[in-house]
């Protein structure tokens, strides 16, 4: 019994310790569960950190590459900076050089203006010394008919070297004429122009220049002024020279050039640039009007603006052609009218703003044969009388100008009236006498 009780006690104790062990096991398994949960959390955390580390690694790599690029760029910038510094120094040097040049340029500009004025004054004096009225004589060669008829020259050209021309008369008489220049039959258009060329500069310097061709019909007035395509005359050559000088001076001067072409026939002025302006057709006559003290104008006259030689020549040729086309007999008509080409030049000195206003007149006068000699009647007589009247009026004006007379009779003919302004101040007058 006792043994039974012991066994029961043992059994109870075993039961109690089993219960405790069970409790302990439960506690331990709960602890293991919480540890597993914690471990799972740690694993998750580790994965996240690993990912972060990976990302950071990539970012680091990218930053490293960027750093390399920036390093390169910064070296480039450094180089540029040194270039820029050099450039700035160079610019500073240029600026100071420019300032020096500018002041030198200003000095030169002033000197140039003074020299130009001096040159113009000297030129002015030279013209005065040479005389602002000059007469050249040109003798044409004998034509084939004259040679066939056995004609010979009455002029002794050997003596003409100093401008003195000896004309042998009948028997042993001889007459001596004095000219500023004499051109013998062998001297060509170029030779004649050599002496005329300086007048182009005079016009651009503000002088009025009048060049006349005077002589009897057939002596070569039109040949000398107009010339032919193969032997250009004064008109073409002087315009060419004028535009050459304009081009040469384009940095210092600005010029505005206009041209007109007109004709004086039977003491009436006609515009050759207006179609149908010939005397044979019914057109409005032009008149010279005084618009201010010392300023005369021809209202309605076409003034064509030209900017180069070709344009100017085209306009003047239009005028010359209109003169020929309008007449029934070109030669007859041309010898009975004064053909006038006028080149108007407005200049501005770009250095000092000085302005000039001048005119170049190129005039092929009507044939100078005398009425008594021509045995003219009717319309021809009227034409010849008008020519005589205007040529002698021109002669009177020249002699009044040459003797510096108080009164210059400009109003005695249409031609001299037209030229009044141009023969009143700063002018050069050249008469080409053709024989
Ligand atoms: N220096 C010269 N050399 C060669 N030929 C000339 C010369 N002068 C004139 N001639 C010739 O003489 C002829 C007459 O000349 P031109 O027509 O120029 O005379 P003009 O005086 O103008 O006459 P018009 O009063 O009728 O107009 C033309 O055939 C021209 O070619």
Tell me briefly what this model is.
The chain has 11 helices and 14 strands.
Sheet with most strands: 9 strands, mixed
Number of strands: 14
- Number of distinct helices: 11
List SSEs in N-to-C order.
Answer: HEHEEEEHHEHHEEEEEHHEEHHHE
The oligomeric status of these chains comes to: single chain
Please give the radius of gyration in angstroms: 53 Å
Mean pLDDT: 87
Helix content: 40-55%
Q: Which regions have little confidence, pLDDT < 50, spanning 5+ residues? A: 276-282
Main attributes of the structure:
nine-stranded mixed beta sheet, 20% strand, 435 residues, Kinesin-like_fam, Kinesin-like protein, 11 helices, microtubule motor activity, alpha/beta, rod-shaped, binds adenosine-5'-triphosphate, ATP-binding
What does this structure look like?
- Strand 12 (337-349) and strand 13 (355-364) form a beta hairpin.
- The protein starts with a helix and ends with a strand.
- 52% of the residues lie in helices and 20% in strands.
- It is built from 11 helices and 14 strands.
- The relative contact order is 0.11.
- It is rod-shaped.
- Mean pLDDT is 87; it is low at 276-282.
- The strands form 3 sheets. Strands 1, 5, 6, 7, 8, 11, 12, 13 and 14 form a 9-stranded mixed beta sheet that branches.
- With 435 residues, it is of the alpha/beta class.
- The structure holds adenosine-5'-triphosphate (ATP).
- Adenosine-5'-triphosphate is lined by residues 140-141, 215, 217-223, 331, 334-335, 367, 434.
- InterPro entries: Kinesin-like_fam (IPR027640), Kinesin_motor_CS (IPR019821), Kinesin_motor_dom (IPR001752), Kinesin_motor_dom_sf (IPR036961), P-loop_NTPase (IPR027417).
- ATP binds at residues 215-222.
- Keywords: ATP-binding, Coiled coil, Microtubule, Motor protein, Nucleotide-binding.
- Residues 53-125 form a coiled coil.
């Amino acid at each position: 019994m006792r043994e039974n009780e012991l066994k029961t006690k043992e059994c109870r104790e075993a039961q109690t310790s089993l219960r405790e062990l069970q409790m302990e096991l439960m506690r331990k398994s709960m602890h293991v569960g919480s540890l597993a949960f914690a471990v799972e959390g740690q694993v998750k955390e580790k994965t996240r950190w690993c990912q972060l580390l990976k990302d950071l690694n990539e970012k680091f790599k990218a930053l490293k590459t960027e750093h390399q690029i920036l390093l390169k760029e910064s070296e480039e910038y450094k180089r540029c900076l040194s270039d820029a510094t050099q450039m700035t120094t160079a610019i500073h040097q240029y600026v100071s050089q420019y300032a020096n040049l500018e002041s030198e340029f200003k000095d030169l500009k002033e000197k140039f203006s003074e020299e130009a004025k001096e040159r113009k004054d000297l030129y002015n004096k030279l013209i005065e010394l040479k005389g602002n009225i000059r007469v050249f004589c040109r003798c044409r060669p004998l034509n084939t008919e004259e040679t066939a008829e056995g004609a010979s020259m009455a002029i002794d050209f050997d003596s003409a070297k100093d401008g003195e021309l000896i004309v042998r008369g009948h028997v042993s008489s001889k007459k001596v004429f004095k000219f500023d220049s004499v051109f013998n039959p062998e001297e060509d258009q170029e030779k004649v122009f050599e002496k005329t060329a300086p007048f182009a500069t005079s016009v651009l310097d503000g002088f009025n220049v009048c060049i006349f061709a005077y002589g009897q019909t057939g002596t070569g007035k039109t040949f000398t002024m107009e010339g032919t395509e193969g032997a250009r005359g004064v008109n073409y050559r002087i315009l060419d020279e004028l535009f050459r000088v304009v081009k040469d001076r384009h940095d210092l001067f600005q010029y505005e050039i206009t041209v007109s072409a007109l004709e004086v026939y039977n003491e009436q002025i006609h515009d050759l640039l207006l179609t149908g302006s010939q005397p044979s057709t019914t057109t409005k006559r032009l008149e010279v009007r005084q618009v201010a003290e010392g300023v005369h104008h021809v209202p309605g006259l076409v003034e064509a603006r030209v900017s180069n030689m070709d344009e100017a020549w085209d306009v003047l040729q239009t005028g010359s052609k209109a003169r020929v086309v309008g007449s029934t007999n070109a030669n007859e008509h041309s010898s009975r009218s004064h053909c006038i080409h006028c080149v108007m030049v407005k200049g501005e000195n770009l250095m000092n703003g000085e302005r000039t206003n001048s005119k170049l007149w190129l005039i092929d006068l009507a044939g100078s044969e005398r009425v008594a000699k021509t045995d003219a009647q009717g319309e021809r007589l009227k034409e010849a009388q008008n020519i005589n009247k205007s040529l002698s009026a021109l002669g009177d004006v020249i002699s009044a100008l040459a003797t510096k007379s108080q009164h210059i009779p400009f109003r005695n003919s249409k031609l001299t009236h037209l030229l009044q302004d141009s023969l009143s101040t700063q002018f050069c007058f050249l008469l080409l006498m053709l024989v």
